[in-house]
Amino acid sequence: MGCTTITDMPDTISTNNIAAGTLPADSVGIVAPATLHFVEPLELECGRSLANYDIVYETYGTLNADASNAILICHALSGHHHAAGYHSADDKRPGWWDNCIGPGKPIDTNRFFVVSLNNIGGCHGSTGPASINPASGQPWGPDFPMVTVKDWVNSQARLADRLGIHKWAAVIGGSLGGMQAMQWAIDYPERIAHAGVIASAPKLSAQNIAFNEVARQSILTDPNFYGGRYYLHDTYPRQGLILARMVGHITYLSEDAMRAKFGRDLRAGRFHFGFDVEFQVESYLRHQGETFSQNFDANTYLLMTKALDYFDPAREFENSLEAALSKTTCRFLVISFTTDWRFSPKRSKEIVNELVTVGRDVSYAEIDTDKGHDAFLVDIPEYLKLFSAYMHRVAVEVENATS
Amino acid sequence: MLRPDLEIIRNWIPDNSRVLDLGCGGGSLLENLRDSKNCQGYGLEIAQDNLAECFVRGVNVIEQDIDEGLGDIQDKRFDYVVMTQALQAVHRPDLVLSEMLRVGKEAIITFPNFGHWRVRGYLFLKGKMPVSRTLPHQWFDTPNIHLCTVSDFETHCRKSGFQILQRTVVDRDHQNGWLTKLLPNLFGEIALYRVTR
């Protein structure tokens, strides 16, 4: 279980030191996370509250004088605060959305001040199930309260307050992150100018929930789960996490992408007539699952999938998405990907159609790709071009208002 | 500067209208209507470069193929539904027209008039599919699969029960001279209509 809690970070906004020569020129360079501690209790949708909590975050770029160029990045199921740049010159890979955040990239750090956080309930430094419960002195584990997209947005609003950001130039996210952007638009209309909702949906379908349930059951039934108190047994539900990730990963890829990447290729070139890894796709899934299980907390995985399942902003408005979206005032960018079957273009169109119905400004692009749901993280020229064009406009609006 | 035919359309649309532009291109009409007439609009477009141009202009644009219908849009959601120089390129112009008048109170349509004397002369004298400045494509690569004449269009409107509220037929320099007024089907190169049901 590779989750680390960052405790030694200064309570200040991180600064970016571009390491000369060693990192790509369009990288934000070496970045360091920062942690803010919150003492005002956070009331949660489930009825419970978090008395105090930490939020770990990174920032890229420079906040302008009137704090009008700030962009909030919301992460998806397995994401975290490290969205761009490198933590050290030795890092093999940059942050998870490095292809979209950086100098000259769609979210241009020469123009925007980007804030990326790890949501509460997470396992990358913000308070979550692996953190110590002050009441017991032991890890929260299964006692950690259920958090929802709405709760995250409320916690993000407090983060914005602490950073001196009254209104985001944009709140952007893919998948579960896009849901947070939507929730921001509904709950804090006066604090968001643009919402970027990418590869997302207005709520999960029965099929989506079914996949999440398979993932959860695989964790919950792992003998090493110990009712969520595996920390005390110095172990973790490795097999459960591996299975959860494997099934999840299948839904992130398209059939075409899998066929192109693996086909029916055999690792050894011939059948073994056994149950060991034979096909390349089996090897790939096992590897993905194994890597993930070493880097992600099982309780966080359970929480994140529940947050996905619960997300349904229309519920507060007598199940009318139209009524929910009529609360919004910001402008929307909605992007979907043709082969995304987890949150298909049809789901994005539901959002777009309701926004048109209520007369909100919205632009929508459907990117032609074989990359499936994961496409929102991939370098697809058409996607990056359109994303850049939209963000250019956002930057121009900020700059015109400032000058 | 707006394209001359768009300038004519702009003048037809009153302030504060809700406008849907089918095949909105780079969004110049919608941008102009937004900035000069406080209109709220959306464009439908499928070409990536045009989408990007709309994004940069801050014009609402939705990637959607007109041929797949406007089924997602409520009845009478818009005051004006505009389609410039695309009627001849859709699979079923009749269905698109009918959808335009479902989602909009009025429709504004422009198309190249296939009844223009030069087109007729080209076909008559050369025996080949006409190629001109307003119809620059060859028969095999043209997107214009349903060309019609002023006369065809007006017949269709009559049969469908559409009322023509306004018509301007212009030559290729977008001038509306006495010849185009007198014999629009013969002298008009581009036809602009405002219709309702």
Describe the model.
The complex is a heterodimer of chains A (about 400) and B (about 200). The radius of gyration of chain A is 21 Å and the shape is globular. In chain A, about 35% of the residues lie in helices and about 15% in strands. By secondary structure, chain A is α/β, with parallel strands linked by helices. Chain A has an eight-stranded mixed beta sheet with strand order 1-4-8-5-11-12-13-14, sandwiched between helices. In chain A, strands 2-3 form a two-stranded antiparallel sheet. Chain A has a two-stranded parallel ribbon with strand order 6-7. Chain A has helices at about 150-160, 175-185, 205-220, 240-250, 255-260, 280-295, 300-310, 320-325, 345-355, 380-400, and strands at about 35-40, 40-45, 50, 55-60, 70-75, 100, 105-110, 115, 130-135, 140, 170-175, 195-200, 330-335, 360-365. Chain A contains ten helices and 14 strands. Chain B is α/β, with parallel strands linked by helices. Chain B has a single domain (about 5-115, about 145-195), classed as 3-Layer(aba) Sandwich (Rossmann fold), CATH 3.40.50. Chain B has a seven-stranded mixed beta sheet, sandwiched between helices. Chain B is globular and about 45 Å long. The mean pLDDT of chain B is about 95.
Question: Could you give a quick summary of the protein structure above?
Answer:
The complex is a heterodimer of chains A (403) and B (197). Chain A is of the alpha/beta class and 403 residues long.
Most extensive chain-chain interface = A-B, 21 and 22 residues
Helix content of chain A: 25-40%
> What's the overall average pLDDT of chain A, rounded?
94
- Global outline of chain A: globular
Query: Quick check: average pLDDT of chain B?
Result: 94
Helix content of chain B: 25-40%
Which strand order do you get reading across the main beta sheet of chain A?
1-4-8-5-11-12-13-14
Largest sheet of chain B: 7 strands, mixed
User: What oligomeric arrangement do these chains adopt?
Assistant: heterodimer
Q: What's the structural domain tally of chain B?
A: 1
Quote the distance from N terminus to C terminus of chain B. Answer: 32 Å
Kindly report the CATH topology of chain B.
Rossmann fold
Query: Could you give me the name of the CATH homologous superfamily of chain B?
Result: Vaccinia Virus protein VP39
Sketch the topology of chain B as an H/E string, one letter per element. Answer: HEHEHEEHEHHEHHE
* CATH first level of chain B: Alpha Beta
